[in-house]
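Pipeline run #58 for the internal structure catalog. This entry was flagged by the ingest filter as a single-chain record with no existing model, so it goes straight to prediction. Upstream metadata was stripped on purpose; only the residue string is passed forward. Reviewer on rotation: M.T. Logging verbosity set to normal.
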Amino acid sequence: MTSSAALPDATRTDVETLWDYHDMHHAVQSADVGIGLGSHDLGVATCAADLYHQGVFPLIAFTGANAPTTVSRFPRGEAVHYREHAIERGVPAEAILIETKATNTGQNIEHTRELLAERGIKVRSAVLMSRPYQQRRAYATCKKLWPEIEVICASLPMALDDYVKSIGDPDRVINMLVGDTQRITEYAKRGYAIEQPFPSDVRSAYERLVQAGYTSRLI
């Protein structure tokens, strides 16, 4: 593993394979609401603000309490900090709802669905915004828990190397990619998400990275 600010050459191809796998490659289209999933990555809120200004959706719902990895970065909660960031980027406060109790992706979806229903907001389509490597898991989870809506996945457009530089910790990014890859199959088995294709090249890349020691985010 590496402690430098760049991906190690020995694992680059495998990391790129997983990075591309988790990107759903959806074309962003107009939707009833944009849902920003809480995490350590403020780029989710930036993405939401950018798409709002492009007229993709008229309303943003940010969802997220805290996880051990975010409490120091976002002490008032992920959704609260996301909202503040979006307002700083020119989104009107009245165009933002927040859900502050969710601590995992399933709860993000369930609690946001409940919040919108309580407000009488009918949702037929949503743009689900997340970290780049969370797209596939977010999609599979949403289609399990909220199957009747059209789901489009989006993230802040960023190349892998630029994303690694923005986080400043290649090991963290690789470990999160490996962890999310495991969750694609494990969560489907546990009934948390719908099944997703798992091509052989993705499986092989995942297994090599596990063997290389990137296991801190495995369940």
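catalog note: The CA atoms of residues 137 and 184 lie 6 Å apart.
catalog note: The longest helix spans residues 170-189.
status: ready for reviewer M.T.
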